[in-house]
Structure formats: C-alpha cells, structure tokens
Amino acid sequence: METLQYTNGWLNLNEERINEINHFCEDYKHFLNKGKTERQCVALCVKQAEEKGFRPISEFKQLNPGDKVYFVNRKKNVALVVVGKQPISDGIRYVVSHIDSPRLDLKPNPVYEKSELALMRTHYYGGIKKYQWASRPLALHGIVATKSGRNVDIVIGEDPQDPVFTIPDLLPHLDKKVQRERTAAEVLKGEELQIIVGSIPMEVNDDKIKDKVKHHILTKLFEKYEISEPDFISAELMLVPAGEARDVGIDGGLLGAYGQDDRICAFTSLEAIFDIAMPEQTAVCFLVDKEEIGSSGSTGLESRYLEYFTGELLIRQLGNQYNDQMMRRCLWQSYALSSDVNAGLNPLFESVHDVQNASKMGYGLVLTKYTGHGGKAGSNDADAEYVAALRRMFDDKEIKWQSGLLGKVDEGGGGTVAKYLAHYGINTIDAGAALLSMHSPFELASKFDIHELYKAYKVFFIDAL
C-alpha cells in the first residue's frame, strides 16, 4: 500500500545535477536583476523569445503546428505560444504567472520640501509590512510619459555609482511615544512612507522660490531627463529594493531576492516553453500584471485579454470557420497551472502553519488545491480528477512535488489568479514554489525548487494528462 511521504530533493543528488541547478539559478538571478518592473520584465521576455525564434502574432496569417508566436498587451503582459499538433480548438495548456510584485509607487504629485530636505510621497502597491521598507536602500524604476510624446526610462539606484533613496526611520532613543506603542501594521503608516531625494539647496535669484532643495532636485531631473514637475502626473515610477539577487547560507542552497513572488514562476515557465518544439496541445506561457492588487485593470487577469489572444489564435487557424462557441469550447477543454508561490514552513513561526499541510523548502513543486480565506472564500478549488492526473504525470516523470496550504484555517489567507482562469471553465490548480519571507524586500527560495519548477512546467506543456 502506498503511503504519503515527501522527501528533501537535495538528498542523494550527484555533482553534475547540483552544477546544473546552480547554472540555471545564475540565469534566474540575471532575470531578477534586469526585470524588477513589469515593463522591464516584458521587454526582457520579448528579447529572449525572439532569440528563441518566437515572432509577433502580426506576422502570421495562418498558424501551423510548431509555430512560435507572442502577444504583448500594453507592455505589461506577454503571452508566448507554441502551436501544437492537435487543433487549438481542442484545448490549450496554459501556465500563467504574474510579474508584478509589492512595491512603493510615487504619487502623481510627489515632490516637496520639509526641514530643508527634499522628499517624495509614495503609495504602497500590494500587501506589504510597511516597516520593512524603512532605512534600506531603494532604487527608482519606471517611465515618465511627457506631453510631447516622449517616454523617458528611468533607473536610479542599481548601478554601484548611482545614488539610492531611503525612508528615514525614527531612532530608538526617541520612539517611545510616537512609534513604539503602535501596532505592527502602523509602526510606519502609509503616509510616512516618504523617500529622501535631496539635501543641497540651490542658489536662486527668484524670491518666489522658497523651497531651494526641491528646486535643485527638479533642476537636476530636467537637466538629465528633460522632465519637469507636471510630468510626474503621467509617470509610472516605483521604488524597489536596490541591489542584486544573492545566494543565502554557507551551503548556497537558497536564493534571496526581491520579487520572487512571482517572477520565480515567470522565469521557469519561460524557460520551459523555450525548450519545447511541437507539443501535442498548444502551449501558452502567459505573464500577467496586477495580481497583487486583485488582478484588476486592462493588464490584470480580470480583464478579457486571455479571450483576446486565444480568439486570435483560433481565427488564424480556423479562418472563416471560427465562431465564438469554438473559443468557449476551447477554454472549457483547456488545462492551466496558476503558477504562483506558497508560504514555506517558517522555522521561527511554525505556529501559524498546519505543519502536516505546509510546504517545505527543497521539496519541489507545490500543488495548492485551494487558497482563499475564512472557509475557502475567493478560491478556486481544483477538481479531484485534475489533481490525480497531475500526480500521475509528475510521478511518472520523477518530478519532485508536494502539496501545501497557505497556513492554518483561521490565521489569514490569500488568493491567486486561479479563480479568473477557472471562470472560463479551464481546469486550474495553483502550482509554484515555497517561499520564506514572502512579500518582503528579500524573499527566499530553494535553488532545487527553482529548477524543479522548470522541469514540472515543461512536462505539463508536453505530456498527456
């Protein structure tokens, strides 16, 4: 009789396999370092995809098995497609990851001066512990769209020669009344997440200009980028942790970085689809935006872009025979992995986990049958038959996997994009990696799990269910 027994994936690995994992993770570090925003991530993906033979959908009038195409939605979504042997209308294999991460966004009118320091006001994006973002080096990334039609790319704080930005925390000598008695959620309040951007006043011969440090900062921005204060209104600028991904631990088995939720799944699913030639069913790697704030907007999965590009695929294969019912049938017959992360068992706070149902670092892909909160609210709950088919598939290919839940029933909860995929009738389950310090500026993942994700997604794209 078979018993349930998960084991650590590092055990009994030979040197060749360990070297393969480390080499793969070096490529992943590059991806994390160069793709800290959605726009950067999409641009990087498109560049790599074109090097692998993918072409924009606009170049195809007719799709044939083996064709490699891509779609880009407003520079924040990308869908990579390898057309399969079977008709697209018979169903698709989707692996869907999100490429947005918690961060601090600049407000539309951010710059001001106080106590002879220039500062910028921010608004946090996604679920963060606000105190984690103070007294640490931050980098500014994004674009400024000017009235003249220019898009100005800005990255300040990543090059070792760049200045960085920071939120000044209160020293422990003076925090007793102002800060120490606050709850953890209010150690720093939202309106206190303000970054220092300058300290040197500028000599001016205009009595109307009172804020000389602010004026100095705006002058330097104009000199370097030809942007002025009103241009912040039409900008997408965000603060992220400065610095690169690093190995963690004396043995180097963990990788620490900002944004691994969920770029760990984005990178591994990209690498998986790059490595397939002609699958049985059409394979789609879809990278989406806005998951951290509810998948809203025209670039989140709550939009209908999945319908848009799936319809384009069908039209280019079926031509005049296409009708809307074919797309609905195609989606209903499709399978998806909502490739998102789970909460790894934290040795310092085991009490919030149901240890028997918690995912562990180094144990491979995590299948999460349901997420949600307070009675599975807001969850996709994967069908038992689909879970069984995936168990069989991964076991047959010797893919390390484990089941996992986010935590104890009444401790909290969370959600993913799974429910938006299931809305179309797509068989869907969450499948990703276990992380420690999720949603922090420095998240931790097991290198073994990173490579095992890639193997699992590749098997999902090409093997029969």
Your description of this structure?
The protein is an alpha/beta fold and 465 residues long. It has 2 domains: 13-99 and 257-460, 3-Layer(aba) Sandwich (Aminopeptidase); 101-239, Aminopeptidase i, Domain 2 (Roll). The chain is built from 9 helices and 22 strands. The protein has a 9-stranded mixed β-sheet with strand order 1-2-3-13-4-14-20-16-18, with helices on both faces. A 6-stranded antiparallel β-sheet has the order 8-7-10-5-6-9. The two termini are 24 Å apart.
The total domain count is 2
Overall strand count: 22
Poorly predicted sequence stretches spanning 5 or more consecutive residues? none
Structural class: alpha/beta
Query: What is the CATH third-level topology name of the largest domain?
Result: Aminopeptidase
Query: What integer is the average pLDDT?
Result: 95
Specify Rg, calculated over alpha carbons: 24 Å
| Termini separation | 24 Å
Give a short account of the largest sheet: 9 strands, mixed
The CATH class of the largest domain turns out to be: Alpha Beta
Helix proportion range: 25-40%
The proportion of residues in beta strands is 15-25%
Specify the CATH architecture of the largest domain.
3-Layer(aba) Sandwich
EC number: 3.4.11.-
GO cellular component, one term: cytoplasm
Cofactor: Zn(2+)
Keywords: Aminopeptidase, Hydrolase, Metal-binding, Metalloprotease, Protease, Zinc
